[in-house]
Design a protein that fits this description.
Length: about 700
């Protein structure tokens, strides 16, 4: 700050006494006249009382000199500035320093204007302050433009902050709305009182959801506001912003001693429907400004987005939970259905297998083979239903195992060889055995697709041949199944891979089937990142092919033949079977007798434990679902009591889902025989573990 030694407006005499400064006097007078014609100039005494003003001061302030002289500048106070603002100004001036700053004044007619002010002390010859001189330039228009720019900048910042809240995840809705309110309260040019709340619509009422500094009394009174009641209720009803400059008769919710204030009540809309109202407190007397209303309504759109996004997320979560529950219920139903169907089917097919080896005449054997064939068909349908359920629910998983593709094709052909021979069909595998057929992938699913294609080819071929060929090129393996069967026309080709689709009704009547097989093949192949195709000529034949990307595997030195290795004498084996169903007890007894083995039967897991406590066994076959103690708990208990010194435990159950197999493995079971029990599979398992017993002995 600079100290003044003299007053610029009282220097005429000082300069005139010095003839040498005559030129400077003329120059100074010119400056003085220029100031008087462009600036608001006033002088005060040392206490701040106005002693003189120029015409421009009168014109801008709209006060006459008579009204101003004798008053201080507080007559022009606009209320814009804090007391500290003027305290700092006076402290500067009293020290003899110049003060510079911008001041917002209020004219006599109530209008406001801004001035860029320079105030400096007027000193006498003793350098004592005898008054103050103020030179002001009106900058109202410049200030207005600055305010517009600042307001626009602030609006953008506020909207961006609200948008960030809108897109933030994993936050409670009430917290988001509270933060949104605080952002509005921090907007300086809105002049809000830092009090308010957000109401959300519940039927014909507004429910106070978020509040800020309203106080317990207001929160209780305004907890629920009827549509059309009070200011916020009217904003809800009229779907427009309601303003109040004071507490008036429209405030139906009020009480003695309520503080003076105004209101903005801004509806929150979604698709022309009001879903809530933002209530903001204003200083008493605050007038409605359209720019403020437009800005607040823009903010309310983001409030709406926040609310709708939250509700959509909640709805999605609820829908997901319902879908998960529905899928779980569906899976449980299918698992139970599968178990309940497989249990009697096990008895039917098992008894048919036993009867095949008994003394039957040709007619009786034909009837048994029919029963066995029907059982196989029913089992295929059941497996198809379970597969399609897994596929549609996205629960189908694929393995990555080293396998011999040549062996896989041989096994698949072997399964259809009996029916092909009965029909006089020549079943051909065109490739020669080679070590180049080792790959990594899901051999079980590849076999499932291949068996389905070969079975269909044999079924729909009345004469001629069915051939299988493997091609491998740059990691893409293609398997083709070609037949000389009935073929397909163009219309049939278009829908052959659709679910529940057959070539036509006569095909269903003649050959049977659900129409799920090829659809399942397509989904399995696509699940392995491959594709399946068909080429066909009606009446000539068809070629089904599927291509799958497979990694090259490693050839294994031991490659067992397809035919099972049989152990000549199994009568020495002591086998315990835990099975609660009386029909299945009879069946397993007969099947084991075919192997020359006499078994002990336990009706529950607890009975199995009791028998194991009394005598030793070489093998244990364990059903899963049993009363008193199921097979899982029984296996856990056997391992707990006997450690690793217990016989191999093999699951023998109608629970055939992958998770069932994994659960059996996790508790210590070494293998799995699915119901309906195939005698050949049972024989394989017994042979396998009897060999292991010999090796360990």
């Amino acid at each position: 700050m600079v100290s003044l030694r003299y007053s610029p407006l009282s220097t005429d005499k000082y300069l005139m006494d010095d003839k040498k400064n005559h030129g400077q006097l003329i120059q100074l007078l010119g400056i003085k006249n220029a100031l008087y014609s462009s600036a608001l100039i006033s002088e005060t005494d040392v206490s701040g009382k106005i002693t003189s003003v120029n015409e421009i001061f009168e014109k801008v302030s709209k006060y006459s000199s008579e009204e101003l002289i004798g008053n201080d500048h507080r007559i022009l106070n606009s209320g814009e500035h804090e007391k500290s603002f003027f305290q700092e100004m006076w402290e500067t001036l009293k020290k003899g320093n110049i003060w510079r700053g911008e001041i917002k004044n209020k004219a006599k007619d109530g209008s406001f204007y801004w001035v860029d002010s320079t105030i400096f002390p007027k000193l006498n010859e003793k350098k004592e302050i005898i008054g103050f001189i103020s030179i002001r330039y009106e900058v109202t228009e410049r200030k207005h433009q600055q305010e517009i720019i600042l307001q626009q900048k602030t609006e953008t910042e506020v909207l961006n902050k609200l948008l960030l809240l809108d897109h933030s995840d994993n936050r409670d809705l009430n917290l988001k709305l509270k933060d949104s309110l605080n952002i509005l309260f921090e907007t300086p040019w809105l002049k809000l009182l830092n009090k308010g709340g957000v109401f959300l619509v519940e039927g014909n009422y507004l429910k106070l959801t978020v509040s800020n500094k309203l106080g317990e009394k207001i929160e209780n009174l305004c907890d629920k506001v009827e549509k059309g009641s009070c200011l916020c209720g009217r904003a809800f009803e009229q779907s427009e912003t309601i303003h109040a400059s004071c507490v008036d008769e429209r405030h139906e919710v009020t009480f003695d001693g309520i503080s003076a204030h105004g209101h903005y009540n801004v509806p929150i809309k979604y698709q022309d429907n009001v879903i809530g109202v933002i209530v903001l407190y204003l200083p008493h007397g605050h007038q409605r400004k359209e720019q403020e209303v437009l800005f607040l309504e823009a903010c309310s759109e983001i409030f709406s987005s926040i609310i709708i996004a939250h509700r959509s997320k909640v709805e999605l979560i609820e829908a997901r939970d319902k879908a998960i529950m529905a899928e779980r219920s569906k899976s449980e139903f299918l698992a139970n259905m599968s178990h309940e169907i497989r249990t009697p089917l096990n008895g039917i097919m098992g008894m048919a297998q036993v009867l095949k080896d008994s003394q039957l005449d040709e007619k009786q054997l034909k009837l048994i083979e029919t029963i066995d064939s029907c059982g196989d068909s029913l089992l295929t349908i059941l497996n198809d239903v379970l597969d399609i359920s897994k596929i549609e629910s996205g629960n189908m998983e694929f393995e990555d195992l080293n396998f011999d593709l040549y062996r896989c094709v041989e096994e698949s052909i072997h399964l259809s060889s009996y029916r092909a021979s009965q029909n006089g069909i020549n079943l051909i595998f065109e490739n020669k055995k080679s070590n180049d057929f080792w790959f990594r992938g899901d051999v079980t699913r590849i076999r499932q697709v291949l068996v389905n294609l070969i079975t269909n080819a044999v079924k729909f071929t009345e004469k001629g041949s069915v051939s299988v060929q493997i091609e491998s090129l740059k990691g893409l393996v293609t398997i083709k199944v070609k037949d000389t069967g009935i073929g397909l026309n163009a219309e049939q080709l278009n829908k052959i891979f659709n679910a529940f689709s057959q070539a036509d009704a006569s095909t269903t009547r003649k050959f049977g089937g659900t129409g799920l097989g090829l659809y399942i093949c397509k989904r399995l192949v696509e699940g392995m990142k491959g594709e399946i195709n068909v080429e066909s000529r009606y009446g000539v034949g068809s070629t089904f092919s599927f291509s799958i990307p497979l990694k090259v595997g490693e050839a294994e030195s031991v490659n067992e033949p397809i035919s099972r290795q049989k152990v000549s004498n199994l009568s020495h084996l002591k086998v315990l079977v835990a099975e609660d169903n009386s029909v299945n007890q009879m069946l397993v007894k007969l099947l084991f007798e075919k192997l020359g083995i006499k078994i002990m039967i336990a009706g529950t897991g607890q009975e199995a434990l009791d028998l194991l406590h009394k005598q030793s066994f070489d093998l244990i076959f364990m059903d899963i679902q049993m009363p008193v103690m199921d097979g899982i708990e029984a296996t856990k208990e056997i391992k707990r009591l006997h450690g690793e010194d217990h016989p191999p435990i093999i699951a023998m159950t109608a629970n055939v889902f992958k998770e069932d197999r994994e659960q059996c493995k996790s508790v210590g079971m070494v293998d799995f025989v699915a119901k309906p029990i195939k005698f050949e599979e049972l024989e394989d398992v017994v042979n396998k573990y009897s060999q292991n017993l010999k090796k360990s002995a």
